[in-house]
Every structure is written in C-alpha cells, then in structure tokens.
Here is the input.
Amino acid sequence: MNQFLATTPFDLYELTLFQLVADTGSFTRAAEKAGLTQSAITRQIRGMEDRLGVALFERTTRRVCLTRTGQLLREKSNTILNAANELLEDVQRTLGKLPPTLRVGVARSIGLAYLPGYFFAFQRRHPEVQLQVTHQTSHEILTSLEAGNLDAGLVCPPPRLPPSLKVTHRFADEFVAIAPPQFSLAPDVASVTMKQLKKLFADQRWLLIDRQGFTGRRLNHWLRAQGWLIEPAMELDGFDVIVNLVSLGLGVSLVPHRVLALYGNRRIVRRLAIQPRFSRELAVVVRRNRVTPEPLRSFVESVLF
Here is the structure.
C-alpha cells in the first residue's frame, strides 16, 4: 500500500484539473475556472502524462482534444470524482455542517407557471432540504444528470434516453395558439381548426420556441405534418418571454396552455384552442440507482402536475 501511494500517477486534485480541461476543451478556460495560471495547469497535466507514460490530450494551435486514453480516463474518472463528492457531502452532513441538498435542473422551455407543482409540496414537507435549481436546455440537463452533477431533471425528453437515466413521471402538455390582445377576433371564438388558424394568422409575424431544442423540433415536425411551413421572425428558448412579446403586439405563437396560468384572468393575450391538438411530453428524469437516496425519493413522490 505504501508503495502504491508513493508511485500513484495522479491524485483527486489532478484528476479534477484533468476533467476541467476535458470539459472546457481549453487549458486557458480550465485555468480560469480553477483559479490557476495556464502554465500551472499545463504542468499538472504534463506531470500526469509523464507518470502514466501516455498522452491524454492532442494539442494543436486551435484546440485541445482527448486521446483515446484520455477519453477512457474521462469516462472512468466521472465515477471516482462523483463518489468522492458524495462521500464528502455525507461526512459533512453527518457532522451537521451541511444541510441536505437536492440539485434539480429545469429546462428553459418549461415556464415559470410549472414550478409550484414541482416544488411546493416537497418544500412544505421538507423545509430543511436546500434546493439548488439550474435553468438549462434539456440536452444540458441530461448530460449533467449522466455526469452526476444533478439529482433530477425536469425536461422535454428525447425519443431515447441514455441507458444510465430513467423517467419517474410523464406529463402531456397541450399547446394553444396566442395572439396580441388587440388582435381582431370575435369575442366568442375560443377554438379553431388548423385551416382557420392558417387564415387568421396568414400575415402575422411568428415567435416560436427554438427549433434546436427537443420541444422546438417536435413542434416544427408537427406543423410540417399539417402542411404548414413557418419561418419565424424570432426563435426564443423560453415560453414566458414569448408570451410577453406576443402581449406587446410583436407577433403570434403556439405555447403550452399551462404557461398562461401565470397570468390569471388578465387578458394580456388572446388564446385559441386548436384542432387537431399538439402536445409535448414533459418528464422527471433521474439516474438509474439501485436505491434512490433521500431527499430525491421524497421529491419524486411529491411532484404534482
């Protein structure tokens, strides 16, 4: 054991620096995050490579890429670093220095009106738990879940999840058409067919959710299936912003009907149910653990939608 400790090619500190370079693809950016100089982090990585006897990165004038060995080390080191972090948190929690923490990622395409259903009941039952909530794309949240940087994600999931993840809840989220409050429309009109909607919105500017995201791709595919090719004036990554821009008269849109619940009875937009209906799927996603730890189990059981 003493011989191993004396000859081990790297420690957790160096492994963390290696992960930073791998994640950022840059010695400069990794050094900034670590609070080191570029030369210092370069020396650390070169020391690892010298002791291992292999190159971990391919360096060019433009970019830094992982070698095959580097890719293997990155994949395996995620487990080591996550286990070390969890061990440290468990020790600190046992000593009473750290409150229970739940790290949750919420997709940017999920509006603010959804959040009470995700958090309210849980926080009432477990006020001692500290929630760390991040706002990212669904793709970024799934990547963070895989890496162990999040405990749960609220996302519009892709058709296939990575094998290491699973869905605990699924929700159908129906869309409606919205227009500015001054839009010319009979007061009693609350529902339209797609043919009618095309005629009503023929000359309008469209504000749509970003087509690069999971929700945007599905909505775009559905519109094409209806024979409607829309080139939006603006693409945005959040529905709350879209609703507010429509209320200002900047265009029309299709949004989840639950997003509008945040605005109560204020008629900031005109809303129309559409036939046929379009809905996306929202899901709570977690890692596939044999035993779901607290407070994650309580959070999953408390979700309302």
Q: What stands out?
A: The mean pLDDT is 86. The radius of gyration is 24 Å. The first strand starts at residue 57 and ends at 59. The chain has three domains: 2-73, 92-171+282-302, 172-281.
